Amino acid sequence: MSPSSRHWLPSLAAVTTLAFLAAGVAVKQELPPVTAASEPITPSSDVDPTGPLMLVTKDLPLPDGYVPADLVHPNVPSASPGAAPLLNAATAAAAEAMFAAARADGVAITLVSGYRSFTTQAIIREGHTSALGAEAAEAVSARPGHSEHQTGWAMDIGDGSGTCSMTACFADQPAAAWAAANAHLFGFIIRYPPGAEHITGYVYEPWHLRYVGVGPATEIAARGITLEEYLGSVAG
Length: 236
Ligand SMILES: [Zn+2]
Known about the structure:
Helix 3 (118-132) packs across helix 4 (134-140). The chain starts with 11 loop residues before the first helix and ends with a helix. The chain is built from 8 helices and 6 strands; from the N terminus they run αββαβααβαβαβαα. It is α+β, with helices and mostly antiparallel strands. It binds zinc ion. The site of zinc ion has 5 residues, from strand 4.
């Protein structure tokens, strides 16, 4: 999908209307297939564009100037001094429940990163580009306006030790193993799973969790699929 095609598919009714207007005459109701297997996967047109199933990717930017309306500091251990990073209210509540459950299991999880503004993401991306070069930066960080962190629905976790922080070996740390096994119970998915870079555009990030709601998260975990594949399968 090109960047010029906007974030969400128009409704089928709108597609039909557009076809009618373009033809200038009554046209047969020939609707395009919702999702052809060979085409990019797009979300259902009735997915709330700012809700827990919102899709933000390298091809699907956020609306210009998007800032979540309900950012709060969750009451969870933070990786940095001071209040924990911001999340939107639903994600914050889910994070509080998840971190507490992990702690009850003897597993420490800290919140490393939550909401990031467009400007903050631009600074981070510039840092990656300077350190790694443009091509490598593309695989590990989002361009500003394309980060899930700007939605308030995403967070990066750590374990407070700094071991393997934000690197692939974090997957073997207790916090990541616990999250991989249990995050769906609280509505979170491992958004960029291993072996899915061709779908998500990102290398494996065992620390990046995305809130989608318990039902979708449970199905995504059970089927071992990505959010893109889940939205493609429910589109229509
Ligand atoms: Zn992240």
